[in-house]
Amino acid sequence: MDRVTATLCSRNAHKARELERLLPGWTIEPLDAEGWPEETGATYFENARAKALFGREALGPDRTYIGEDSGIEVDALGGRPGIESARYAPEGGRAIAKLLRELDGVADRKACYVSELVCLMPGGHELRGSGTLAGRIADEPRGEEGFGYDPVFVPEGEDRTVAELGNAWKERSSHRARAARALLAALGAALLFAAAGCGGTDPTASRVLRAFFAGGPVARSLGERFPHEPGTRPCVVHDKGVALQATCATDISLVKPSRAVVTLTEAWNHGARAHTWFFFIRRDGTVQSVVQEGRPAPLP
Fold first, then answer.
1. Could you read off the pLDDT of 127-155 as tens digits, one per residue?
2. All domains in the chain, ordered by first residue
3. What is d(CA 71, CA 86) in angstroms, rounded to the nearest whole number?
4. Which residues are the active-site residues?
């Protein structure tokens, strides 16, 4: 694939540098503009998409634009700061100090980082990548690398903060790294479909999906809530025993004559949380391997 040059519709220089490292083969240029829109969306996706649309309006339709919105959700604060993270307090020490004050004496310190990327391609094609990282809030800041809440965020399964784990760890495992991988997967699928002249109604894709969902017990179980054609439909997930409305999306990319990739994504909490399966399969529907991103919603 040729190198992609994209405009990141953000004033955050840290994110521009991080995304360029996370998207191999991409050059990320920050957007220098006035009159930025207010972040009034109800979800990370809406805010990220609004930023990408603002960039396209400012510079024209013949470029690639990325909008990004992210936040930190703390269970004990009812999910705050969430989509208000950028407006919670000035980034850095002041925001961290405020968060620690709110959690002073609180035992439950579970939290989740969320990142949403929306990419607008020339010609209007729209792609999306979501990523989450579960963890907890430390009692005090530790570490020198990273930015934002990294000095107080300890990822699940780790003893050190993200700022202690460092930028190399972030490039592999952060919420934004996971969103970037999901975006690259969506881009790869789009390019493969375009090259093959395929779309959502491609008969080969439909046949392979039917074989996949008729396969082993895992695929048959997932097939009870995921559409059997490329697309999205409402579904229900259970988070901490509570039934939540969600969306379940199916996509397929036909990689080569003998292989395909089926992507299944469930998203809930207005898109703030998501879990994705990447099934690498043969054209007869047989699963060869599977990769998962994000934390699944727990069963009741």
1. 888 888 999 999 999 998 888 899 999 99
2. 4-186 (3.90.950.10), 198-293 (no CATH)
3. 7
4. 69
